Amino acid sequence: MEKANKESQSPLNFLKNLLITRWRSLLLLLIGVYLPLQVFEILTLKIWQNEAGFSWDVPILLAVHSTANPQLDVLAVTLAKVGLPLTAIPILGAIALILLLQKRWRSLAFLVTTSVGSVIINRTAKALMHRVRPQLWQSIAPELSFAFPSAHAMTSMTLVAILLILSWANPWRWFVFMFGSLYVIAIGWCRLYLGVHFPSDILAGWMVALAWTIGVSLIIKPHITTAKFVDGEPDEDETTLLPEETKLIAED
Fold this sequence. Notes:
The chain has a domain at 35-48 and 68-130 and 149-228.
């Protein structure tokens, strides 16, 4: 018995048990936060050193532009309007209202923090990078602001990631994932088709939005709650602090 207690208290055994119980969170941290941030860092450094960016930026843009026709023009302009950051406000506002009425405060905190943070990150990055938009042809929907990272790409990825995390305990998550993936790709395509973004702008927007959204979810933990409440009562985790959160407040 004493031998078992000593083994359970040993640093190696503790580390092993900790990794076994937390491997999902660690894997999500690696794939969902570290790797996207690493890609974003590489893109940022390259563009900081050379505004022209990557050798594959222009060829991809020209390849997309070679498919131009009147029907795709209409589709691209429509998608550009649908993907505007302002368009996401009523959608997120409606979800926030539902969460507020259901007293899902933790999920509401996640939604607000992620949405506001995404806007701040995008505006800050654009102001710091000052990357000029492509000038390869006359766009039918020109933009005047800086290009890196794409606000449309960040908004679409942030919106879909929020919906996916909030619906994770619901069978509808696969529908959200499939439809959301198509939506994110369509918005990215329209920005390339219109010639207002380099591919690296789109990729950077996706990566930083994904890392930020998953990072916030790992801290606020909206995914620990169930999809529906029993008898209309809110889940305790939604209306109270977790033990470790209460302890941190007490220590401060």
